[in-house]
Amino acid sequence: MSLSIEVVEPDRLGETPIVAVFAFAARGEGNPTLAPGLPALRAELGLPSELDAAECAREGFHGKVGQVLKLAGSVDPRIFVIGLGKADGVDAERWRRGAAALIRSAGEAGEAALVVPPDAPGAALAEGAVLAAYRFDTYRSKPSPSALGRLLIVTDSDAVRETTQAGVVAADAVCFARDLVNTPPSDLNPTQLADQATERLTGRAGTTVEVWDADKVEAERLGGLLAVARGSVQPPRLVIARYEPADPVEIDGRVPHVVLVGKGITFDSGGLSLKTPDGMTTMKTDMSGAAIVLATISACGELDVGVKVTAIAPVTENMPGPNAVKPGDVFRARNGATIEVLNTDAEGRLVLADGLSLAAELEPDAIIDVATLTGAAVVALGRGICALFGTDQDLIDRVRQAGASAGEPMWPMPLPDEYADHIDSEVADMKNMGKAGEAGSIAAALLLARFVGDVPWAHLDIAGPARSGESSGYLTKGATAFGVRTLLGLLASYRQS
Ligand code: BES
Ligand code: MN
Ligand code: ZN
Predict the structure, then answer these.
(1) Residue 146's pLDDT is what?
(2) Residue 275 bears catalytic tag
(3) Cα angle, residue 286 at apex, residues 354 and 427 outer, rounded to 5°
(4) Of 63, 148, 161, 318, which is least surrounded by CB within 10 A?
(5) Catalytic residue at 284?
């Protein structure tokens, strides 16, 4: 995390070179209006109570979400006005995009102050700002032009102060996941991923982490993980992290337990069913699910999540080495079911079969898996929306609602019994592919569903939104870590209900 955020009282504004305020777009024709709050400070800064109509017209500033007006004549400090769209129905996502717009327009000023209204959602502001400032510069000789180093959020509201801190914690978890995903695949093999996760999680309140090596994976009969790992010289790992709340919530006399499972393919070459060169260029991203569930659990203590959480990440490369699993091979997964491998590039469902079996054995209240699972999900919903599957409508609704609040949109997909035969195998209990060209994301989800027993389950196929093709708003080109903020919001929501 490169941007530091400090919440300050209005009288501690200091010598910052940029002061930003928000504005709402007019309802109909007319001038954008400044958002209220801190009138004394505004007077001191010489901020107009109304924007100058001529200036707005000249600059084409309508107060649209993310639009920035640099007030003419303001020098020390320069005043930036940031659009939030129309005042009615302004949601968290607009505050995120507003904060991101400030970060992206403040250039190399070093520091800026943002004057916020007393009812501003601090978490959204912090997320938008920190994530817009995210850069992955580890491998550059010269760092990319950075955004700001420090943002002062100016308010006298304790609520804003508290929510801002929560937003910083969530954004920091997202940055950790993005760093893992952006790291080149030969610098983040399964062993290195497990080490990084261990380092991140060790010493966090209520949190423990355990790593299974190849021998343990074999002793525990994780046949899917072993089958995929056979083609690589890198041994697989299984990471299990556990979080126990200090101050648990009880629902119907017990503390809910949520298990998160993340697909951790540190590089997906396709195996013997080799991908094309183009298809492989982004496949370091294929451990996003693992990064996301591990990042999520790493923030649970600081956010005082009230439920028990377990994160399980089966981690391996998918490579076509001499011992690789071959199309036609059959293996037995952790829960005893056999799977015929007809396409070695459909490897995610094989490692998840074991991860979900382990999850179901814990008899939790909910299982949620996160996976860059199918190209078909990208075809169906594009890069902005995640395909959401599940067996329990309440859980699905809850996840979708958390996604909407986090600005991580999800669209519900069906799990039709009628398609069960898509994964019928000639020789085994099931095969790892559906029918060519038909319902690829559903076929994958139907296979996963066979490993969760009767535990309420939701499945997030993030193949589309896991990466962004450009840097804009609070996304940076490359890893997005889409899902971390949804899961944190979901886990936090148990305290409210
Ligand atoms: N990791 C890929 C899915 C993927 C594709 C993620 C594009 C992000 C962008 C997955 O392992 C895969 O290769 N799936 C195959 C399954 C097929 C062989 C049944 C796919 O979607 O083509
Ligand atoms: Mn694959
Ligand atoms: Zn994959």
Answers:
(1) 65
(2) yes
(3) 40
(4) 161
(5) no
